[in-house]
Amino acid sequence: MFLGPFLTLTGFLAGNSRSHLAGSHSSSLLSSSSSCLLNAKTYEICISPGCVADGADQLLSKMQALAPSDISVTPGDCCSLCGNGPIVLEGNKKYRKVSEVKLIELLFGEEGMNSQQQAVLDAFNMVVEGDGFLKKRNYEKAVELYGKGIELGLEPAMETNAAMTPDDNDDEPSPALQWLVNARQQEAAAKLNMGDLDGAVLSAQSACELSSSSSLQALEILQESYAALGDPKGELEALQAYFALPEPTKMTTMQSNKRRNLGFRLQKLEREAK
Known about the structure:
alpha+beta, 4-stranded mixed sheet, 62% helix, globular
């Protein structure tokens, strides 16, 4: 069964959702975010190997998912405080061993989070819990948690992102949605291991849609899902989209070998399609 690699998500990613998300609630967020950008604050997250081992990657993703429009969160260079991570840099200030409580304080101050932001945080933590079960190969529990987290966080995340992203940048991937892209990718991997091939394809398609078809990892799991399903047409389109993206400047030997093998697979499928 060919479903096509870029199935439009139901609900908030469907065409008619654009008008819903551009309603009065989003309009008010847009007007407030425009004024806030004039006084934008930037946090950098040290992503040196030591800090990554202390959870810097997860902190970066969580802060980007939650950051208001007047705050930018970006990866940062090593700040030579190994063993004190994860570390957040704000100008000359360095915050060590940043916890979730400290993260909320940095992003929201004394006002704290609103209900929409709290929903995104709760959803994010469900996805992280799902990642733990995926590593333990408890695929059923992982899929359950991914599903609950995505259901809880998709609407508020999409609404916030729509309000913060200009209309002419609809095709650009948003760091605020990267956790949802990852969740869909991991959900697809878990379903693939369970033998739910149609479900794996749908989850991978959703990851591609959320990333504006810019995620190599999402396209890889989509290709793998189509291959397992026995759908060469879908697999071919996924690989064509994969190689249409820029090649990463830095790859491990394993990543380089995988890319080369996918290239061989693409050539084979193109020959068979003629």
